[in-house]
Design brief:
Mean pLDDT: 97
Largest sheet: 6 strands, mixed
CATH architecture: 3-Layer(aba) Sandwich
Oligomer: single chain
Order of helices and strands: HHEEHHEHEHHEEHH
Helix content: 40-55%
CATH topology: Uracil-DNA Glycosylase, subunit E
Strand order of the largest sheet: 1-3-2-4-6-5
Length: about 230
């Protein structure tokens, strides 16, 4: 990565970390960071908005919903320190996008290859439900990431909110007529007018994985397909 591009990503991270546009989210994140979960009482929580993470030259982009209260809101890195992250990074590792299957802390040595992980919202929302206004406040961050991640050819959106967030940030939500917009469904695939391929998946939240709505074979198939699409791009 060039020094100029490194500086652009660094500037974006600082903007994200300093964001205070959503008082409800900031209060929630700071309260969680202060009270903590019993298992993490000895840890210092991040408690700030969370930036995207990965390879700036990525051809695969993964878009989630938001940091988890005791996951990324604790560790400061997307999908790190919770069960959703266990599912995500194990799949990325299995398909050659990560150097290790575990994501426990910001200094655990994890590196992504040809992949970048981000989210629709940058603060942990109460009940995992950001409002439309809160998502709109976050949209410029995803827009900027898309500008910097110019090599992306495949996008995996985890959940319908993430799918819409990507389509809005990329400009397709307004550019396409409602009947032309990609429909959400696990394993659904759509080629966008710019040539990028959008793949949608259920989010690997406990609500989905513990109920059997999302199984390991279903999840693995998403990233096997993403690998094939990236290799073909």
């Amino acid at each position: 990565m060039s020094g100029a591009r490194d500086g652009e990503f660094g500037a974006l991270e600082r903007r994200i970390h300093a964001c205070a546009l959503c008082p409800r989210l900031r209060r929630h994140c700071e309260t969680v960071a202060r009270l903590k979960r019993r298992a993490y009482l000895d840890q210092r929580y991040w408690g700030k908005p969370v930036a995207g993470f990965g390879d700036p030259r990525a051809r695969l982009l993964v878009v989630g919903l938001a940091p988890a209260a005791h996951g990324a809101n604790r560790t400061g890195r997307m999908f790190t320190g919770d069960s959703s992250g266990e599912w995500l990074y194990a799949a990325l590792h299995a398909h050659g996008f990560a150097n290790q299957p575990d994501s426990l802390a910001r200094d655990d040595g994890l590196r992504l290859r040809d992949a970048f992980v981000t989210a629709a919202a940058r603060c942990a929302p109460p009940g995992n439900r950001p409002t439309r206004l809160e998502l709109e406040h976050c949209r410029p961050f995803l827009e900027r990431e898309l500008t910097l991640l110019g090599r992306v050819r495949v996008v995996v959106a985890l959940g319908s909110i993430a799918q819409r967030a990507y389509l809005e940030a990329a400009g397709w939500w307004s550019a396409l007529a409602p009947r032309q917009r990609p429909r959400f469904g696990h394993g659904a695939e759509a080629q966008l007018p710019d040539g990028r391929v959008l793949v949608t998946s259920y989010h690997p939240s406990r609500q989905n994985t513990q109920t059997g709505r999302l199984t390991r074979p279903m999840w693995t198939a998403i990233f096997a397909r993403a690998r094939a699409l990236v290799d073909r791009a």
